[in-house]
Every structure is written in C-alpha cells, then in structure tokens.
Amino acid sequence: MYQFTKLNLIVAILMLPVSVLAAMSSTNYYIYADSVETGGGLSSGGAYSIEDTIGQGFVSESESLGSTYKIKAGYQAMVIGSLSLNISDNSIDLGSLSTTTVTSASTIVTVTTDSESGYSASIQSAIWTGTPLTDVVDGTVDVGQEEYGIAVSGPDIPLAFTDDRSVIAGRVLANKTYAATGSQTTITFKAAISPSTSSGDRSQAVEIAVSANL
Amino acid sequence: MLKKIFFIITCVCLLGIVVEVDAFSVSPLKQLVTLDQGTGKNVKIKVRNTERETTKYKITVIGVKQDDQGYPVYGVGIEEAENWVKAEQEVVEIKPGKEVEVSFKIFVPKGTYPGSHYVGLSAEPVLEGSENKNFSGKLISLLLLEVSGTVNESLSVINWSGEKEVYWSLNEVKLNAILDNAGNTELPLSGKIRLYNWLDKKVVDKDVYLGGVVLPETQRKSEVLLPTQTGWYLPGVYRAQLDLVYGRTGQKLSVQYPFWYIPLSWLVVGGMLLIIMIFIVIKKIINKRRQLSLRGM
Fold first, then answer.
1. In this prediction, does ipTM exceed 0.85?
2. B151, B123 in Cβ contact below 8 A?
3. Cα–Cα distance for residue pair B138/B144, rounded to 1 Å
4. What is the distance in angstroms between the Cα of B284 and the nearest Cα belonging to chain A?
C-alpha cells in the first residue's frame, strides 16, 4: 500500500513538467489575438510566432496634469469573452388585423455571454413598408383603436418596461449587468385597428443589436 | 429496452434544445486601440457559427452612442468614427461549428481631435428567403478608438435634487442626478451618498451605482435612493451629499441637496403638546375671567 502511494506520487511529479512542456507546443499554445503594426515586428521561437506592436503605453502619469492627460498611440487592450444570440422566429406575422381584437405574435431572443459587465439588447432599426400603424403612446394596445407596439417579458427586461411601448430605434429590450447563460426575453408584437384604419398590406423590418455593456 | 429507448429520446431532445441556443457568437467583447491621427491599424473579431447548417454572415461597422440611462445605442451615421473603420470582407460563409476571423481596417484621418469614440464591429446572419424575415439580430464586438493627444476629463452635475423639500420618513427620500460629460474622453464613474443632520453628523454613508462609463458629450440620469433606515434620527434640516470620483485621473466632485426631515411620530407628539399648551392657556384665561367676574360681583 505504501509502495503504491509512493509510486503514484512519483508519477504525479513526473507528469507536471510534461504538462508544462505540452503547453509550450504550437498545438496547445493559444494566442488569442495578434497585432499587425507598421512599427511592430515578427518574433518567432520554435513552433510559434507573433507580430507585436511598438509604442505600448496609455497614460503617462508624468504628463497628467489635473483633469487633462495625454493618450499615447500604440496601446491596445481587449476584453476577451464571447456573446451569442439566438432568435426563435425571424418571421413575425400578425395576419389580418381586426377592430374587435388585439392581434399579437411573439419571438424569443436568447443571449449567452461571459461579459462581466453584462449585455444590452436594443432595437437598432425599425423600417416600415406601406403606411405605418400609429405607435402606442398610452401604455396599452387597445381594441378598436389603431395602435401598434411591443411588450417584453423575461428576467432581463428594463425595470420601467412593463407596458406596451412603441417600436422605435434605441428602445432597450433587455439588459443585464453581469454574465448571462441562455437568458431569454420574449418580445410580443401587438397591433389593433380602428374602423377608420385604411386597408392595405403593411410590414415592418425590425433589427435588434446585442453587445456587452459599455 | 423501453427504458433505453426513453433515455435515448430524452438525450436527443436535450441535444436539440442545446443546439438551438447559441445560433452564432462573436468575440472578443471589447477592444481598445489608441492611434495617432493620420495612422492606421487592423483589428479582428471572430465569428462562430453554432447552427447546424452553413450560414453566411454580413459584416458591418456601426456607430455606438449612449442614452441617458447608460445603455448603448447603435445606429448608422451617429458617430464620425464609423467612417474610419472598414470591414475587409462584407460577407463571410461559415460552416457549422466553425469559426472565422474577420479583419477590419482602421484609419484615423489627419486633423482628427484627440478623444474617444465607440464603434461596433457587427456580424449578422444573412437569412434565406429574407423577404419573409422581418425580425433579425446582430451581434456587436465593441471597439473603443482613442485618438492620441491631450484629453480633458470634465464632468458636471446639472441636477441633484429631491422630489420634496419636506420628508416625513427618510425612507421616502429619492434623489435625482443628471451628470454631463463635457470632456472628450469616456469617464469611469463611482459615487457615494452621504447624509448629514443639522449637527453635521454623518448618518448615512453608502456606495451608489450610477451606471458604467459615461461617454463624451453624454448626459447620465440616475435615481438615488437612501438605504432603508430603521434607527432613530433627529428632526430638522438634513443635507444629502453626492460624492463622485470620475475619470482616469480620479477627479472628485461633490454636490448637496438640503431638505427637512420631520418624522410623523415627532409631529404627533408635537401636535399633542401644542394642543395641551393651548388647552392650558385657554383654561388659564377662563379661570382669570372667572376670578375677575367674581371680584366684580
């Protein structure tokens, strides 16, 4: 029993330098990003190489005076991490609108990120084809009135977004201040018409954008 | 046997769910590059296709600003630096489970003033049968472009006030702050709320979250609530002080808002004392009149 433990210990000690050496090989060594600069240069050693940048340095304390300071060119930094997006349905069809009901259709936006500052999803553009429907302004898309808007639900919706809102660029749909794993936000499009609403096809192309928080 | 089949079906269903999430991803989350005016550089982002089929992705550069709540706002033609960055490929085709690196060329024109600018390096799936697809999404890798030179950190408080001038309870105190970044660089920000009574004794000292960095030429609106108070506090004039530390040079800024705090319990006790005093005075007057009338008789 004693010999077996001793043998295990020796094997473990022998394994340590092996794993370190393995990490130095080109197949296991991971350089996330390189930088190509006119003032940089190619450095190589063994199986791998990297282009570097000259002039790294951001704020020179000696040049900082009160609330002003000098930024020097050449500095680069990166927040490594990823952001992923899934949209359950890209075709939102409200069908024929009616004066007696509010028509709605939903899609689910799923975001995963390891961003420490969290993420933000908002409408980047909303472009109508045909005569636009009137944006909802009173917080509810009501039956018998020409109104169009969205409602959102999920754990990441902004605090104040608990009613129906207009579909406009800049509208924040979801925000989280820490990492998210499969965070789902349901976006429901709602429309209603009045007897005076003119007939005809209408469509709107909505594009959302998702990024880490600033 | 049935159990095995059930197990396999469950696994397939779970896999289906896992595969459906993460349709595509981008990395890194954010890059910072500082350049001299009249110089250029290349940056890269990685786009990964986690769909089950080969997909084309449209690569674009968009402007990034900030709204008054601190949320990013994306758009075309909203930030001059959008024109300084060009994607080297407009469309990339990525096989399932594969990742592709996309390059962007940055060139800061001569004569550009020092300061910071945000742009978004974005990827968006090109949807097949796009005439029926009216809801789409893009992912943005943020690029902070700093143009070298002297930058100025300037933050001012446009408003620091409460909704009332008199509060019955300290738990009702809600203060509104409007900050303005008039400088030419983004400002990291931290703040504390401190509450002093009329004896200049500090009764509250708490960190407040005012949102992330404030971009240049941007205002930030924040609502600050006092932490819940359960203790006993003297009535009188209080001042709520907002202490800010901002920027990379650690500038400090303080603003104050005075208000009256009159707790309801004190108001009730004071009211009762007043009634008793009035009652005593009235009684004394009546007694005096009685005595005078008795003397007159």
1. no
2. no
3. 19
4. 59
In a domain, B210, yes or no: yes
Q: Give residues 21 to 60 of B whose Cβ lies within 8 Å of A.
A: 21-36, 39, 41-42, 44, 48, 50
Do both B110 and B184 map to the same domain?
A: no
Asked whether residue A27 carries a pLDDT value surpassing 80, the answer given is no
Same domain, B36 and B141: yes
**Nearest chain A Cα to B67, which residue?**
A170
Specify the pLDDT at position A20: 34
User: What Å distances lie between residue A80 and A1, A65, B41, B94, B98, CA to CA?
Assistant: 47, 32, 19, 21, 18
Q: What percent of chain A has pLDDT over 70?
A: 69
CA distance B124 to B130: 13
Distance, CA of B9 to CA of A42 (rounded, Å): 53
For chain A, which residues make up each domain, given as ranges?
2-53, 83-212
B17 at interface of A, judged by CB pairs closer than 8 A: no
**Nearest-Cα residue of chain B relative to residue A110:** B21
Dist CA A146 CA A133 (whole Å): 7
User: Is residue B91 domain-shared with residue B48, that is, in the same domain?
Assistant: yes
Q: In B, which residues are within 8 Å of A33 by CB distance?
A: 28, 44
Number of domain units in chain B? 2
Give the range of the structural domain holding residue B177, as residue numbers without chain letter.
155-265
Q: Which of residues 175-234 of B touch A (CB under 8 A)?
A: 183, 185-186, 212-213, 215
**B281 within domain boundaries:** no
Examine residue B270 and state whether it is found in any structural domain, yes or no. Answer: no
Mean pLDDT of chain B: 88
Read off the pLDDT band of B277 (50, 70, 90).
Answer: very high
Assign residue B256 the CATH number of its domain. 2.60.40.10
B263 at interface of A, judged by CB pairs closer than 8 A: no
Local structure of residue B4 (DSSP, 8 states): H
| B142 strand-pairing partners | B30, B120
Residue B133 touches partner A, C-beta closer than 8 Å? yes
Specify the CATH architecture of the domain A83-212.
Sandwich (2.60)
Q: What is the pLDDT of residue A31?
A: 58
